Amino acid sequence: MEVLAGGRAHDGDAGWPLVRSARRSRWLGPARRDRLGRMRVVDLDRDMSDVIPTGMSPDSEFLFERMTEVTLKATCADPGRWILDVASGVGQDSVALARQGARVVGAEPSARMTAMAEAFGSAHLDADLRRPTWVRGWADALPFEDDAFDAAFCKGAMDHFDDPEAAVSEMARVTRRDGRVVLAIANFDSLACRVTRAIDLFRQDWLGLGPLRGRRGYDTPSDHFTRYELDLMKEQARRHVEIETVQGVSIGWGLPGWATLVCHLPRPLARWLLRGLDALARQWPTLADVIVVVGRPRRDSATTSA
Ligand SMILES: C[S@@+](CC[C@H](N)C(=O)[O-])C[C@H]1O[C@@H](n2cnc3c(N)ncnc32)[C@H](O)[C@@H]1O
Fold first, then answer.
1. Cα–ligand 1 centroid distance for 203 (angstroms)
2. Which residues, in sequence order, are CB contacts of 275 under 8 Å at separation 6+?
3. pLDDT tens by residue, 35-80
4. What are the residues whose beta carbons fall under 8 Å from the beta carbon of 169, sequence distance 6 or more?
5. pTM to 2 decimal places
6. Which of 7, 66, 5 lies closest to 275, judged by CA?
7. Which residues pair with 86 in a beta bridge?
8. Which mutation among 33, 43, 93 tests ligand 1's pocket best, with the greatest number of atoms within 8 A of CB?
9. pLDDT tens-digit map of 131-153
10. Complete domains list, the chain, with CATH
11. What is the distance in A from the centroid of ligand 1 to the CA of 206?
12. Nearest Cα residue to 132 out of 90, 173, 102, 104
């Protein structure tokens, strides 16, 4: 396990109990072998161009804003609490929580992402604020002691993992018994995905038109290993956490013509519409664009990784 320079960045921080010895180390390269020995290529350099349309439209802005808000709020990151950001990417969420006074550790296997996170933290945190600590590590072999954190969250990344359930198990292990594990992931069986798929089938089967080019919103991107929907999320989560809440975020993202419509509406009306749909998503997460599962770590025999 490589811990970046700065892994013990907090001067005089005698409370840094977290980094485990090399016992859990794994080679941090772009390709790994799975349990059956098959070589798998892992996404270590985020390229969101295939997922998020270039030029953020108000519906995309709203979705990412709300997803972040709901996820970070669920961590209850009060000042002084230890929070783990799993697959922290360029570190914007860790930095946001550090700004609230939490002690944040961002765990991320990609050197490129981690370097960006360090730069982002330096640029966006005042000198008197405690910076997040950036640690290089795989989600399914977190280099931390048991019960080290008050909360662990993973936002928009589980579908990039080659062993996501082991990651949930690890998050539960490193989170205190009364802490929170927060998982936020895109729902590929959302209302928008279902309607878009139905429209595409209608075009093909009834109108006899050829298939549309490019990836459709309901197709999983090439750098995803898992196609998440509500039942799968709950099934993977509940083996390792006692689920407390399941919340949906936003409805309609990616529907054909939706971004254009929202762009053309007066901004207050667009926000009102997006908020209304978000309120529905809270009630019916199965229809939502993003699902956020929050739970307490389980400490029984069922918590062994899959
Ligand atoms: C789409 S980004 C999400 C980053 C961040 N959580 C956010 O919300 O912006 C996915 C991240 O997962 C990381 N990743 C991919 N495979 C991983 C694994 N097995 N363990 C931990 N992180 C992984 C990638 O390096 C990338 O930074």
1. 36
2. none
3. 566 555 565 665 555 555 556 889 999 999 999 999 999 999 999 9
4. 140, 239, 240, 303, 304, 305, 306
5. 0.86
6. 66
7. 107
8. 43
9. 999 999 999 999 999 999 999 99
10. 22-303 (3.40.50.150)
11. 40
12. 104
